[in-house]
Fold these 4 entries.
Entry 1:
Amino acid sequence: MSIGQVSGEGHGGPISVERTTGQALVDGLLGHGVDTVFGIPGVQSYALFDAMAEHAGEISLFVPRHEQTCAYMAFGYAQSTGRVGVCSVVPGPGVLNASAALLTALGASTPVVLLTAEIPSAYMGRGLGHLHEMADQLAAMGHFTKWAANVLRPEDAPGLLAEAFHRARSGRPGPTALAAPWDVLGAAGQVTPVAPIPVVAPVVDEQALGEAVEMLAGARNPMIMVGGGARDAAPAVLSLARHLQAPVVSFRAGRGVVPDSDPLGFSSATGFERWADTDVLLAIGTRQELAWFRWPDRPAGLRTINIDIDPTQHERLEPTVALTADAVDAVPKLLDGLRAQTAGAASRAAEFAGLKERAAAERAAVMQPHLAYLAAIRDVLPLSGFFVEEISQIGFSSYFGFPVDDPRHFITAGYQGTLGFGYPTSLGVKAGNRSAPVVSLSGDGGFMFGSNELATAVQHDLGVVAVVFDNGSFGNVQADQERIFGRQSGAVLTNPDFPAMARSFGCEGYRAESPDQLRATLDKALADDRPALVHVPMPLDTTTSPWRYLMPQSRQAPVE
C-alpha cells in the first residue's frame, strides 16, 4: 500500500484514517522517501516492525547483530548518501547500545533518525523496574541527539516524525529520536498524514558578504579550509579556489571537496606547510580543528572568514567576518563578488604541485609501511569507491596519506574518534551504495568491536572488504604508553586467526604480508563483490607515528 493510499487523500487535502502508531510512523517514513531501515526488533517495538512488514517491497530492513551497529549502519548510510539514515532499537539498554553511534553522528553532523519504544505508558516514571526501563529516557537521549520526543498518541505520530526529519536535516545536520510506549505503538487512532517540512537555509547577509569579498580580494596568501559542511558546495569551492589560487585544506569530513589530484587540493599535513604564510583564512563548514588545536603558532595578523550554517560556531571561533549560511548559497555569491572586483590571481599550480610533491616525498621517507599499504588500497579502489577509516595507527595515517577525489567517499567518525565504528559503519555505506566498492580499514583492536557483523554482511550480501591491520595491540595506546611511561598497561591483545574466523562466517578470508600482496588480494576481493576480510600482520613500530603530521611542531616565521 502506498502512502497516498494510506492517507486517503482527496480534493480537500489529507484525510484522517485509522492507523496504529506503528503504521503511522512507517507511513511517514515512506512519505519522507525512506526505503532503508536498520533495526533489531524487540517486544516493545513489535508493532513498528510488523508495520514495516506490510511494506516489505518498499522498505529494505537490515538486521545486524548488535544494536550499536543499527545506528552505525544508519550513520554510514547517511554520511555516504547525504540522505537521512533510519534505525530502530528497543528502549533502555538498546538505546544506550546505540548511543555511541548517535553521538558520533552528532559530532560528525550526520542526519540520523532513531525510532525506539518505551515501557508501557502506565508504568513510565514510576521506577517499578519494568522490562528495559530507564529513568527519564527522553532526557538521556537529549544528550546525544539534536532533538528527541515521545509519541504518546497515534494522532501525534505523523507530525512528530516530520519534525524529527526536519530537525535532523536542518541547520547543522544531526541525529534525532522518537520513542513511543509499548502500548501506544500498537494502539489505533484517527491519523492525518503530515508532509515533509521544507528545510529553509538562512539568507546570506549581504553586508558580511561584502566584507568577506574585500578581505579576500586584498589577501596575499589566502587559504581555504573545508569540512563536511562544504561537501554539497564542492564545485563552487573549487571555482573559488581557482579564482583566488588558494590551497584548499581538508582534514577528515572535508576530504574530496577539492580533489587531492588537483594542485589546489591539500591534505592537512601539506596544508601546514602553508600555514605560517597565510594572511586570510576562509573556513567553510568546518570547526577549524586544525587552526585552533592542531597547528601551532597562529600567523601574526591572521584574519578569518567563517561560513557556517550554525551561528554558534561563530561564537566559538570568533572570526573576523561571520557568514551564517549554507555553503551552497554563500560560496557562489562570494565568487560572484570577487569576480566583479578582480580578474583572479595568477596561477600557482606549479608552485603548489611542487610543494605537494616535496611534502609527500618527505612523508614517504618516514611513514612506512603505512603509506605503502594505503597506496596499495588507493591503486585498487576506484575513485568512485568508498573508504571507511578507523581509529588506528594506519587509520590516522589515512587522514593525510590516502588521496580522495570525491566528497562523501572518505567516511569518518570525526572528532568523536569512536573506536570500533569502522566495520559496522561500512556495512551501512554498502547498503546505501550497492554497486560501489567499499573498503573498511581497521586495526585489530577496533575491528574486534564489531567482528560479529561479518554475519550481517553475509546475511544481507553486503560485499564490503575489511582490511584488518594486526599489531596485536591497541597500537596507538601502546605507543603512547611506552613513550610517556616507558611501559604498556592494558594495550596488548590476543587475536583469532582472522582469515579462518571470516571463513567461519561464510566470508572470504585472505592474508597479505606486503603492500604488493595486499594490492593483488584486494583487487580480487573487490572484483568478487562478496563479503571478505584481508588480514595484514604489521608489527607495531613505535618510532613510526602519524602524530608528527597530525600534531606538527612549529615552522619558521612567514617568508615575505
Entry 2:
Amino acid sequence: MKEKQFVIGVDAGTSNIKAVLFDLKGNELASHGIPVTLDSPLPNTAEQDMQEIWDCVTTCVAKIAGDIEVDQCVGIGVTSHGDGTWMIDADGNPVRSGIFWCDGRATDAVERWHQEGIAREAFALCGTAVNTGTQSCQLEWLKNHEPESLERASSIFHCKDWIFYKLTGQRTTDETDESLPMLNMATRQYDDRLFELFNLNNLRDKFPQVLPAYRNIGQLNADVAERIGLQPGMTVGSGPMDVSACALGVGAIWHGDGSTILGTAGIHQVTMDSADLTPEMVGMTLCHAPSDKWLRLMAVNSATPNVDWFLRELGEGIRRQAEADGISVFDAVDQAIQSVPIGSRGVMYHPYLLPNGERAPFIKPAAKASFSGLSDTNVAADLLRAVYEGVVFAMVDCYRHMPIEVKTITLSGGGAKSDVWCQMVADAMGTPIQITAGTEFGAKGAAMNVAVATGVFESYEQAVDEMVHAKKTYNPDPARHATYQKLYPLYKKIAECSAGYWDLRAEILDALESE
C-alpha cells in the first residue's frame, strides 16, 4: 500500500451535502458541507432541484480536493438518502425535481395497496412495507398526476444514482438502494412479480442495471475532473445507500450488529446473515454492502427534527438561559433535560412530525406528532425532555420488532453528539451503546466501499479493521432501565389509541380544504 493515499466520500443527505477526505486509517482530514432546503410545491410534498444537488456536490468535492495531490486519491465514493424518485431523460437532463423519501403525496396508493393485500404480497418478496416514501408509490402518483414526466423519463434513479451519472455518465444502481422495494431479497435482483403488483411493467426498462455496491463503479469524466480538480478516469463508486453506508462506516457488518442513526430520520437496523423477513409487514429489508449480508431496518421518519422544531418554536427560554450562562444552546438543553426526572413529569411525546406520518414499526401516513399528559404544573423543560424521550421510545419500539437478537448497538448521527441523549438511549434500551471515532459515517462507508472496489482493501472486513475505531461506550443503569420499561407500555398505548383520531383528523381537514 502506497503512503499518503486518500479517498473521498460524498454524502448527499436530506439537509446537507458533504464531501469528506479520509486517509486509509479512517481519519477525517477535511470536509466541506453545504446546507440544502426542501421545496414543498404542494401540501405534504418534499422535493429538491436536481441541478442544485449536483452543483453542491461539485463545490464540496472541489473544496477538499485542493488539499491533496491528484495522484494521491484512490477514488470517490458516493452515498445518499434512499427511497424517493429522481428521473432523467434520454439526454441525461432532469425530468423534474427529485421527490424525497419524506414526501407524503402518495398516501392514497399506500392505503389502497395495504387494504387490497398488494402490500402484503410484495412484502413476502422484498421484505419492505410500502410507505409514502417508497419509489413504487411515488411512481403511482406520477402516473395519475404527471404522466408526461414518466413519458419523458429515460432512467428512474435514486439520488446517489443521479450524482454517479453526472460524475461518470453511467446509468446503474446498487443492491442497497434498489432494495426498497423492487428487489427480491432471496435473489438480490429485480423481481417481475413486484413490477406486476405495483403496475409498473410499462416502466420496467427505465430501471437501471442493479449491481453489488463494490461492483457499481465507473470512471470520472474528464470535464468533471477538470471542474473539481481531480484526475480523469479516477474510480468512482456509487453506494451503498446511506443506511448501509453508515452501518459499514461504524463497522456493523457481522450478524447481530445493531446500528442506529439519530439524524433527520431515526434509522434502527441489525445486520443479518440471511434475509429474515419477520415480523411480517413491519419495516424494511435491504441488501447490505457485503454481498452475503442483509439489513433488517426500522426507519422512523423523524428523529432530530423534533428537537429542532422545539428549540425553534418553544426554545426562547433555553436560548436566553444559555446566553446568560455563557454556554452553548445544546449545553443548556442537556442541563434542562437533566433537571427533569425520567417520565418528564407525566408528559409524553410521540415524534411523528414529518408530512408522511410514520413508517416504522407501523405504517400510518396520517400519524401526527403530539404531546399528551400536560397539566398546568408542567414547564418547558418537561416538554423538552419528553421530546427526547419520545424519540428514544420510538427506537425501543423499533428494536423490539427485530427478528434476531441484537448483540451491540452503535450510535451515530447528530443525536450521538449529546452525552445526555446517548445515556438516555442506553438506559431505555438496556443495552451498551457504542460510539465510533469520527462523525461522517455515511461518507466513510462510501469511501470504504470504493477502497474495497479498487482493491486497496481485500474485503469489507479488512476495511473495517483498518478504518473503524471505537471511541466510547455508554452502559445502561439498571434502575433507570426499569423505569423506562414501566413507561414504554404507555407510549405504545397512546399511539395505538391515536390511530382512529389521526384518520378522523385527515378526513375532516381534507373536507375543509375541498370546500
Entry 3:
Amino acid sequence: MINTLSQILNKKGENYLNSFLNEELIISEKIDAFRILFENVNGTLQFYKKDLTPINLIERVLSNLYEDALTEIEVLVGKTQLPEGLVFGLYYCPTERPMRLPYTNLPKYILTDVTKKENGKIIESFDHNEVKNWAAILCMARPPIIFSGKLSEEQKQALLKYDKKEFDNEGNLSIISEKLFGKTYSQENIIEGLIIQSKDKVAQIISYEFDILNEAYEKNYTSRDFYDLVLINLNSFMDNYSIPVLESNNSEELYLELISNIFNNYCKSYKIDESLDPQYLTPPSFGYSGKLNKKLISNKETLELINKSPVYESIFKILISAFRKYKKPYGLLSESFVEKFNTYVYLINNYTKNNNNLNENLLNEARSENIVIDAVKKRQPSDIDNMRVIASIQKAFEAKHINITKGKEKVAIYITTFQPFTNSQMNNIIQINNMWKVPVIIVAVSNKYKIKGNKFTISEDLIRNQMKALVENNKELIPTFLIIDSWNLVEIFEYCRPNYEPFVLLTDKGKKSEMTLQLYFEEEIMGGRIGVEKDFNIGEIENTDLLQGMRTIEDNNFSYFSEITPKEIHNYFQNIVNEYKTWNGSVLNIRKN
C-alpha cells in the first residue's frame, strides 16, 4: 500500500517530506479501474493482477472480465519484441464504470508504468518519457500525467493541506487539482486520487469524496443468509461425497473439473429453487465484475445445469470460490461449521495441487469407462495384440467362469514396502481414507522367494509384525493386512472377497503400469474374470521417507528412526538393525545344522 503525504509526515518527519516534495516530480491521476500487468516470458505473454499474482484459469472462469484484455493485448503487442524482464503495468477500463467511478471517453488501456525485474524483484522503474514511448509502440494511451516538474510552495501546501483534511472550502480534489495543474486526465467531477512520484519515492493522495463513495459501496446492505445456507447445505453434502478419479493437464483444470463434479452431484441431492433472485447469492459489486465465462467450462452436465436458470450459475460460482480459501466464522457460519468446511478446502486443494500431472507425491491415476481400461487402449497396438494372442491360447484350455461374488464392504488397497514403514506411508493411508472415505487394507509382497543379494530386505516375519501393529492400533482405518506371493491382481481380489470389495488400488511409485496391464488383460481380453466395479481405479503414491527410513537402519540411528516412523513401529527398530548387520556381515549369521 502506497503511503499518503500525511502518513509520510507522521512516519518519517517533516524534513523527509519536504525533501521529497522539493524533488523533480511526476503527478498522475489515480484511475478507479482494474490493473493488469504483463511481461514476455520465453516468447509468451504472462498476465498478472495488481498484486503480481497470475490471472489463472479459475479466475477467468469466475468472470469473463479479463478475456478481452488477454486477447486484445496479445494483438496490440503483435510482433513487437518485448525484452524479457520488463513488466508493463496498465489501467484496464472495459466499461464506462469499471469499478466505482463513472468515466466518459476513457481509453480502454492506459499504460502507467514499465519496470525492470531480476530474480523476481523490481530493480528499476522507467521514467515517464520511456513509458510514453512504450505506450506509442504498443498503441495504448499514455500515462495519466497531469504535472511534471518542481512544485511551487503554494502547490505543496495545498496538496498537504488537503491530505491532512484541513479544508477551507476550496472544493473537492478534482477542483483543487484543476486549479493547481490544469485539467485532470479523466476530466471528471470526482477522481480517486493523485500519485506523486520522484525518481525513487512515491506517495499518494486519496480524495475525501472517493473515500465516502467507497465506504458506501463496501457496506453490504443485502442479507447473505441465502449464501450462507448454500455453504451449510454444501457442508452436509460433502459428508457423503467421495472425490472421484479425474485427469487434467494442470491443477487449475483439475480443480474446475472437480468443482463441476461436486456441483453436478449437489444439484441432484438438493432441490434448487429456480425462482430465487440470484442477487441473494451474489456478493455486492463495485462496478463491472463480468459474468461466468461459460466458454472455459468443459463439463457438459455442468453447462446444461447453468443454462437452466441464473440461480444455478450463482451456485456454481459460489462453489468455485468457496473451496479456494479457508473460511472464517461469519453470519450463519459458526466456528464448528467453518472448522469442518475448511477440512474439505484442505483436501480439495491438496488433491488438485499434488495430482499426477504435476509430478508430485500424491496420486498418479488412469481413467476410463472402467476408468483404467481406456488409458491402456492408448498404448501401441502391438502391446494389446500380443495380449490377445496369449489370451486366445489360454481361453482354449480354460474352464468356464463361475459366478463372481462381490465383497460386502468397499475398501482401498495400498500395496507398499515395509523397509521400514514410515510416517509418509501413514500419511498416504490417511489421505486415501479422506479422499475415498473407505478403510484401507495394507498389502505387502512376500520376499520368501527372493534371492539374497546386494539389496537388503527386511524379513517377512518383521514385515508381518509391522503390519499387525499398524492394524491393532488403527482398526477402523486399517481393518486388516495381506501378504501376497507376487504382484498379482487376481490374488488380491481372491484374498479380499467375500468380506471386502476393492474400490481403488494404490501402489508404490513405478508399479502402477504393471497392475494396469493385469487389469486390462483380465477385464478386456479375458472377458471380465475379476469383475471389478466400474469406478475401480489403479494409481500410485510415493513413500517420500523411504530412503531416510533405510538410512536410519544403516546408521543405527534410533532417534531419527522414531521421528520418521509411526510409534507402532518403534519397538522393531533393534530387530531390523540386527537383520541389517547380519546381512552386511558385521554380525555373523551362525547356521544351525
Entry 4:
Amino acid sequence: MKRLAFCTVMFAMTSLLNPGAAPASPPDAVYTAERIYTLDSAKPIAEAVAVKDGIITAVGSADEITALAERETVVHRLEGAYVYPGFVDAHCHLLSLGLQLDRLDLVGTSSFEEVVDMVMRKTRETAPGEWILGRGWDQNDWETPRWPTKEELDSVSPDIPVYLRRIDGHAAIANSAVLKIAGIDASTPDPYGGKILREKGEPTGILIDKAMDLVKDFIPESSVETKRRALLRAADLCISAGLVGVHEAGVTGENLDLYCRMADSDELPFSLYAMIDGEDSTLVERLEAGPVVRRGGKLTIRSVKLFADGALGSRGAALLEPYSDDPGNDGLLMVEEDSLAAISEDALDHGFQVCVHAIGDRANRVVLNAYERAQRALDIEGDEARLRVEHAQVLSPSDIPRFAELGVIASMQPTHCTSDMPWAPERLGPERIRGAYAWATLLKSGAHLASGSDFPVESHDPLLGFYAAVTRRDTEGNPPEGWSPEERMTREQALASFTQGAAYAAFEESVTGSLEPGKRADMTVLSRDIMRVPPSDILDAEVVMTIVGGRVLYEREEIK
C-alpha cells in the first residue's frame, strides 16, 4: 500500500516544477551564445534561450529569441561562450568538503614524512582539548607505498589526538592518544566489516572501514553554525565550478535537520538531493514521514545511502576472489544480502530510493541480488524504483547486463578511474581489471549512468570528470591513447551523464537535465566548446556563468 508514495511523489514533482505551456508575457531574460547544447533530440543545437520565472520558455535562433525581448527583458549576449544544461554532481559529500577547508589537506603528499611535518606545524596552533583532523593521504602515491604507523605521529604529537583519514574515507591513521581515548588496544576485536591493522598483536594505528566507527563517537562535533558556514562555502566552490546542484551521499539526521532549516530560510543556493545515512538513528521515523521533495524549492530527501563494502585503495572492496597483490584478502563485506534486501524492500515500500556503495565485484553482485529480490517482492519496475549502485567500480562480466535488466542506475565517478589506474591493475590482475570502470560497456548494455566526483575524495570540478570520461587520461595526458580506451564515453554520453543522467537518478528528468521549454533554467556557461575542442583543451575551459533556476549565481569577473 505504501508504495503508492512513488506515484504521489512523481505527480507532486511534476505539478510543482513543470508549469506546462510557456506564458505569453515577455521573458525576464534572454541568453545568446556562440553555441547552445540543449540535449533535446528535437533541437540539439541552438543560439538563444528565453527564461521567465526561472523556467525556459523558448529555445531557438538568436534572431527569433531576441525578438521576444521587451524593455524589461535582460539580454545576456555571451559572445565567445558556450551554454550547456547545468552540470550536476551525482555523488559527493558537500558538508565534508566545507569542513575540510579548515582541516589538514593531505592530498598530493609524496610521503608520510611530509604528513608528519604538517601535523607537527599544526600542533603549534592547536588549543588544549582540540583534535588535529585531516584527510587526503594515499599510500599508493608515496615514493615508498606503505601503511603509516601511530609511532610516527606520536613522535610529533604524543598528547594531542591526531586522526587523519585516507583520501577515500575508508581508512584512517590514529595516534596513540586517539587509540587510548577510544579504548582500542591489543584485545579489541575487529568489528564486522572492519579491520584493525596490527603488528605483533598491537594496533598500528590504521583503522579500515567499520573499525573507524570505534573512534567516530569520540571526535569533537562541529557546531551547527560551523556546519552551516562550511556548507555555504562548499556550495560557493561548486557553483563557481559550474555545478547547479549535487547529490550528497549519506547525511545524518542532525545535518538533515540543518539542511531543512536552511531550505526553509532560502539559504540553500542550489539544488541539493540528500541521501539519508542508512545507519542514522532517525532513519525509521524519516521513512515513516515520507519523502521530502524540493523543500524550499531546493532540497529533496527521498533516498537512503548504505554501504556494501570498502574501497579498492585500502583493499576493503569486497571481491569474488582474493586481491592479486594480497592473496589472503578478499576485502570486507559490510552487509549481508538478506539484510540488504529487507532494508531495500522497506525503503521502497515507503517511497524511498536506495543507493548502495559497492566497489568490488562481490559487493556489486550482493547489491544486485538484493535489489532484484526487493523489486520482485513489491512488484516494482526498475523505472519506478530507480535503485542506485554508488561507484559500481569493479563488475563481473555476468553482472554488467543486470543493471539494464533491473533498471538499476550506475552512479559512477570518472576521475576515480584516472586516479586509480596507476595501481588498480596490481590489485585486480589482468582479467578482472576488464570489468573495472566499464562505462562504455554499461551504456551499450542499456544501463542508466549518472556521473559525479565523490568530492572531497576527488576534485569538485566537473570538467575534470568530463575530461576523464572522454579520454581516460590523467591531466598530464597519460597514457596518450587512454587507459582501456574502449571504455571511454563519447562526449555526448559524458555530457548526458552529468546532466540528464543525474536528473534521471533524482526523478527530475521532466524538469531539468536538458534545455527545453517548460524545464527549469539550469545552465552552465563555459569559455570553450568542450564538445568539439581537442581533448587536451577541455581542461582549459573556464566557467563564464552558472545559472540556477534562472538566477545567475556565478559570473566571471571580467564579464560583469
